[in-house]
Design goal:
five-stranded parallel beta sheet, about 40% helix
């Protein structure tokens, strides 16, 4: 019963799965999917999905860039977010993230084809970065009171000290 309830209220967010794959014929490219998702109404689209399925409060499950969208949505609609789970999130502020991230990338990132990783890093990142600009959500995070679980590995390419900034949300835990 509980698993049905959670699965009905969880929405998954993240950079398109195509972001780490080279586009193939018949599939939407990462450029198209990310431009469509991030450059449109963003969290307004997410709220439309929530309303369409008649879900009062959602659990947002987000990966990579998805936590930016999830947190932006939670800031705008805190009464409609039951909780959030972030996996390998970018930090809540841009700052020097991209300079530091670039230095930590290893050739075995995601255990994927190097051409696919290169495509994601050069195409996807450029589009997503432009859509968020010089983001900084830190001042709004203390006002969020839903539980947040942040799952991040010490060997991840995203620096741990930057990921730790998500714990500015009072009920956030880093795991």
């Amino acid at each position: 019963m509980l698993s049905r309830r959670l699965s009905a209220t969880a929405l998954a967010l993240g950079a398109a799965t195509a972001s780490a794959q080279k586009p193939t014929e018949g599939y939407i490219t990462a450029d198209d999917s990310i431009r469509l998702f991030y450059r449109t109404a963003g969290h307004g689209d997410l709220d439309a999905v929530r309303r369409h399925f008649k879900i009062d409060r959602v659990v947002l499950v987000a990966h990579s860039y998805g936590p930016l969208l999830a947190a932006t949505y939670a800031i705008a609609h805190p009464d409609h977010v039951r909780g959030m789970i972030f996996f390998g999130p970018v930090p809540p502020r841009r700052g020097d993230f991209f300079q530091r991230f670039g230095k930590l990338i290893r050739s075995d990132l995601c255990a994927s084809d190097p051409a696919g990783i290169r495509y994601g890093l050069t195409k996807t990142n450029r589009i997503v970065n432009a859509s968020y600009g010089d983001w900084d959500l830190r001042s709004a995070l203390p006002a969020l009171h839903m539980p947040v679980l942040v799952v991040h590995g010490e060997e991840d390419a995203i620096p741990m000290d930057l990921v730790n900034e998500w714990t500015m949300i009072p009920n956030a835990r880093l795991f």
